[in-house]
Amino acid sequence: MTLWQEYHLPATVNEALSLMQRYDGQALFVAGGTDLMLDLEYGNHPPVAALVDVTKIAGLNEIQEEGDWIVIGAAVTHAQIESDSRVRRYGAALAESSSVVGGPQVRNVATIGGNVAHALPAADGTIGLLTLDAQVQVCTRTGDDVTCEWRPLLSIFAGPGRNNLAVNQMLAGFRFRKTGPREASAFDRIMRPQGVALPILGVAARLTLDESLTRIANAAIAIGPAGPIPFRTTEAEAVLTQAPRFDEAAVDAAIAAAQAQARLRTSKHRATKEYRHEMIAVLLRRVLNRAVETAKTNVE
Ligand SMILES: Cc1cc2nc3c(=O)[nH]c(=O)nc-3n(C[C@H](O)[C@H](O)[C@H](O)COP(=O)(O)OP(=O)(O)OC[C@H]3O[C@@H](n4cnc5c(N)ncnc54)[C@H](O)[C@@H]3O)c2cc1C
Asked: For residue 68, how far is its CA from the centre of ligand 1 (angstroms)?
């Protein structure tokens, strides 16, 4: 069966969105195709009239440093992210999460935009971006004009595997504030070694220490899958920032808060809910301790 009729390689966002509007819901964006091709082949998505490839759009496959921000185009691959010195330095959780996506062949073509647009709560790159409090750039075509705006990352998720983009909208990029002095981020995950596409659990944290280097001044913690959409454990973040010092008791309390807030499920191919509950403790302890140790070395 033919899974698509036409394949387009637009050079601009405007051209890409005008193609999508022309096909009026009968076309799909494609980037690396590592999620989409399987969805089409296995019939999770019916055949379409056209695929609109976003990887040749000017600017979409670049990483830029813009003042306090690191800006990453939607068509940037996980391989680009994991090897970029600016992302490794200022957004380690994202570099670490991209570095474990699939194997090298997957990472060489799979993009961060596809990872987010696919909208799975376990997607590694999405977890990395979420802990960095990243924003997503959504471009909208109205008439002949395109406007692009930055939105909170969480605002585009509608449910498992569903984003809320309209037919005249696409993702153009992501940005996050560079980690500064006394600040660091870290990511860790557990998955079956056979390389099933998604992990059992991924956890990322970004922490800022106070000037005494003993208290957490700011915390952002993302865990997935822990609900229908990508998830931040605001309860654990509050426990950490309210604790008088960062110590074992604070870590234990943060773990208990994260476990209580997470909505875990048993997946028959991956893990039980109970196992994931235990893994929150293991992974969160690891990433918190690692982020704090790195933050202590980031003093200027
Ligand atoms: C063997 C294998 C292993 C994998 N391992 C992992 C893993 O360990 N961790 C993990 O998180 N994922 C994993 N994946 C899933 C996948 O590789 C990633 O989610 C990847 O980042 C998807 O990016 P892509 O460019 O291939 O997306 P595509 O498949 O091209 O697109 C995915 C979805 O996003 C839409 N889309 C793409 N770009 C845009 C855009 N700019 N604007 C709007 N919509 C857009 C497409 O229409 C489609 O619905 C694996 C996949 C395979 C095949």
From this structure: 28
Report which DSSP code applies to 270. Answer: T
Fold of domain 183-297: Enolase-like; domain 1 (3.30.390)
- Neighbour count for residue 180 (Cβ, 10 Å): 13
Whether the CB of 161 sits within 6 Å of ligand 1:
no
Q: Please determine, looking at this structure, whether the domain spanning 63-177 carries the CATH number 3.30.465.10.
A: yes
Q: Which atom of ligand 1 is nearest to the CA of 117?
A: 34
How far is ligand 1, taken at its centre, from the CA of residue 20, in Å? 19
Give per-residue burial for 185-221: e unless 16+ CB within 10 Å, then b: bbbbbbbeeeeeebbbbbbbbbbbbeeeeebbeebbb
pLDDT tens profile 262-275: 999 998 878 999 99
Which of 8, 36, 42 gets mutated to test ligand 1 (max ligand atoms within 8 A of its CB)? 36
pLDDT tens digits, one per residue of 52-81: 999 999 999 999 999 999 999 999 999 999
Beta pairing partners, 16? none
Q: What is the pTM of this model?
A: 0.97
Q: Which two tokens stand for residue 257?
A: 């808060």
CATH architecture type of domain 4-53: 2-Layer Sandwich (3.30)
Reading the block at residue 169, the tokens are 């909208």
Backbone angles phi, psi at 118, to 5 degrees: -65, -25
Give the residue from 51, 80, 44 showing the smallest Cα distance to 63: 80
Domain ranges of the chain: 4-53, 63-177, 183-297
